[in-house]
Design a protein that fits this description.
The complex is a heterodimer of chains A (426) and B (449). With 426 residues, chain A is of the alpha/beta class. Chain A is built from 13 helices and 16 strands. The termini of chain B are close together. The chains are: A alpha/beta (426), B alpha/beta (449).
Chain lengths: 426, 449
Amino acid sequence: MRQRVVITGMGTISPLGHDVETLWRGVLAGRSGISKTELFDARTFPSTFSAQVKDFRPQGLVPNLENHAHAGRATQFALAAAHQAWRQAGLDANGGPDRSRVGIYMGCGEGSLDFEAFTTCLLDAWASGKLDTVRWAKLAWERMDLYREVEQEANMVASHLTRQYEVTGPVINVLTACAASTQALGEATWLIRRGLTDVMISGGSHSMIHPLGVTGFNRLTALSTRNDELATASRPFDRTRDGFVLGEGASILILESLESAQARGAAVLAEIIGFGSSADAFRITDQDPDGAGAAAAMHMALKDAGLTAADIDYINAHGTGTSQNDSVETKAVKSVLGARAKACPISSVKSSLGHLIAAAGATELITCVLALRDRVLPPTANYRTPDPDCDLDYIPNTARPAPNVSIIMSNSFGFGGQNNSILIRR
Amino acid sequence: MSGRRVVVTGLGAVSAAGLGLRPLVDALHSGTSHIRRIAAFDPAGFPCQVGGEVASFSAREFVPKSYRKAVKVMARDIELAVAAADLAFRDAAMATPGMNGTGEAGPAKTVGGYEGSRVACNIGAGLICANLDELGGAMQTSLDEHRRLDMARWGREGMNNLTPLWLLKYLPNMLACHVTIIHGLKGPSNTITCGEASALLAIAEAASQIFRGDADAAIAGGAETKLNPMGLLRQGKLGRLTTANESPASVCRPFDVAHAGTVLGEGAGLLVLEEAQAAVARGARIYAELVGFGAAADPAGCDPLAQHCGNLHLACRRAMDEAQITAADVDLVIAHGTGVPHEDRLEAARLAELLPAASGNAEVLSITGAIGNTYAAAGALGAAVAAAAIGEQKAPASVNFAASDAGCAGIRISPRSHARKLRYVLVETFSHAGQSAAAVLKAFEGGQA
C-alpha cells in the first residue's frame, strides 16, 4: 500500500518577494517582477531586462550562515527558502524528525561561472587562434578559487541543504532544464509513497542571469526583446508574445507522508495526488507540434491520481510566452480535456514572475497551493491581444474567485522535450 | 508495483578500455590499466597529466543518417551517451527507430517491441564544460585595448560568433534528450546530476518507474567527461588527483598500499532494464535482476575539503534491506574505490563494518584502476560489470591492486579474476559532494516474485 503525500511547508525567494505571501500578493495583482538587468551590464544585449531577485542578503534569512560561507547566489536562495518551509512545517520543534528518514530531492541548476576569472584566464592564455592550455593551467591555478569552482556543480545546493538539516536519507538533484523542480517534486513524492522516507525537502533553485546564460538564451532567440516595454514583456498566450523573460529564484516545499504529518499534528496545506513524466522524442530545438508529449505527461498524472480530465478545476500552465510553447501547450490541454477545455481556467504566473528555469515548477506549485487555500485563481498578466492559436480561458489580467476549486494541475516542460505534470488536491 | 520485477537485459559501455563492455571486462580480467598521458590537449601545465581517455570515435556512427547533423551540437558528454545507448540496445537485441541497419524494412516502429511511450530514459550527467577554444575564439572580436572582454561589444555583436544552438550543447539534460529522440523513447525521462552517485540513482529511478507501472522498459545510467582543462583544474584543486605522471598505467591504485590519488576517466554506462515477464516473453537474454536500491548522504559533503564517503554504508544497508539479504549473502562488491587514500580508507572501513569477514566472504573490487574515475558514468559502468560478472559467473579483479593499504585491510580484495559463484553483487558509489547510492544485482532465477 502506498503512502499518501502531503505538503506541510513552503518557502520562496522570488523576483516578486522573499517570502510566500509577498510572492502570492504580487502574482494575484499581476505585479511585474521584471526590471533592467543589474547583475551585469546587459545594456547592449538583445534582452536588457530580467526578473531578478531584488535586494537579497542572506543575513537574517539563512540560519547557520557560517556553515555556508562559499554558497553561491542560487544556493543562498535555496537555503533561505528551505528555512521558511522547514519552519512552517513545524519541523524545527523538539529536535525535528529522524534525519535518516528525511530526504532531499531538488531540481537545481548549475552555479554561476566565476566570470571575471574565467574570461581573463581564457583571454590571457589565447595564442595563435587557440587556447594555450599550458599557460591557461598556470593562470587558472592562480586565479580560480577552489570553492567558486566546486559550487558550480549542480548537486551543491542539495549538499548545502544536506548540511543545513543534517540529512542522511536519499539526496538527489535533477536538472531537466525548465522542468527540473516539478520533476523533483514528482519523484520525491514517489520516494515517500514507497516508504523510503517520511519527509522530503524538495523544489528548485536557479539563476542564469549572467552573461553566458543570457547569451545562450538570446542566441536561441528564446527571450523577449521588448526592451522598451519590459514590465509587460512577459505575455503568455497573447498574440504579441515574443519570448520568455529570464528570472531567478528558489522555492522549496516540505513533502511528508500523511501518516507522519498527522502524527506530528502538522497542518496540511495540500495533497500531491498525481505525477506524470514523458519525453517528446522529437527535436532538441522544438516541441512536438501536436503537443503529444505534453499531453502524455498530463494523462499519466491523471491516471496516477485515478482521476479523469473532467476533475481538473484549474491548470497552472508552463506558459512561457514563447510563440511555440503557448500554442503547443494549448493544443495539448485541448487534447487532454476535450470539449471541456474551454471551460477549464488556465493561467501562467510567468507573466508577472518571469521564468525561473529549474526553479519555475516549484515556485508555480506554491501558487497552486495558495490558490486552493484562498479559493482564488491567479491571472495571466499582460494579456491584451487574443491569439487564434491560443483560445482557452487564460484568466486575463484579474485574479478570479474560485470558491469550489479543489484539484489543480501544474505543467512544466523542459527544453529538449522532457515534460512533467503534477496534480494537487485540497 | 506488486509483483513487478526488473531485469537487466542490455549493457552499453564506453570507457578508456574501448567501445562496448567487453574491453572493460577483459581489462579487469587481465589486470590491464588504460590510463595514459592525456592526449586531447597538452596537460603539461597541470600537476596531474594522466587520465583514462576514450580513444577517438565518431558519434556519427551511432546515430541514423537523418540525425547526423545533430552531432554538431553534441558536447563530448552527449556523444559518449549516444554511443553507449546504441551499444546497449544492440546488446539487448532490441531494434529501435533510431538504429542503423536494422533490416530492409527500414527503421523499427517500436523499441524492441515496446511502444515508445512505455520506455523510460534516465541518464545521469555532470556539469558539462563549454569548449574553451570555441568560447575564446568567439570573444576575440569583443576585446578592449587591454585585451579584456568588452561586454558592450559582446552584447551588441560578439555573441553572434557563437552558433545559435550553442547553449544546447551544454545542458546536462541533452544527453537524455538526444537519446530519446534517436531511439523514440517517449516514457518518463530524467537527468540526475549528483556527481559519481548519478548513474546508480538514475538506474534506481528507472527501476522505480517500471515497478510502479509508468514504464515497461528503460535505458538508464550515466555519462560524463571531465577530461578537459576545466575538469582537470577543478578536480586538481580539490587535491584528489595523483601527481605521479611517469608511469600512468600503474598510478591509480584503489585500496593498494601505494594509492596516491585518483585519475580522471571519461565514459558512459547505460543499461537496458525491462519488466521481467516482458523480458522473458520476448526471449531476452537476462543478465541479472535488480533487487535492491539505496541512497544516502553525508552532511560533510558540502565542504569540498572534508573527508567523507557519503555515508555509503547507509545506502548499501538500505539496498540490502530492500533486497532482503544479509552480509552473508553478498558475494561481490563493486566499490567506488577512487584511489584517494582517505576516501579508500573510509570506504573500506564502512564496507568492513557492513560486511564483516566473520559473516561472509564478499570480495571487493574497484574498476577505477583500469579506466579512471568516470564520475556520472561510474555507477553504471560498475553495475554493467556486475551484471556481466553474474552472467559469466566470474569475479573480475582490481587492476593495480598488489598489497592492501593498512587502512583498507578489513575488506578482501582479489588481485586476480577467478571463477566464482555469484548470486548477489552489491554496487556502490559516492560523490565528492556527499551523495551515495547502491544497488543489489541478483542472478536471475525466474519464477514468481
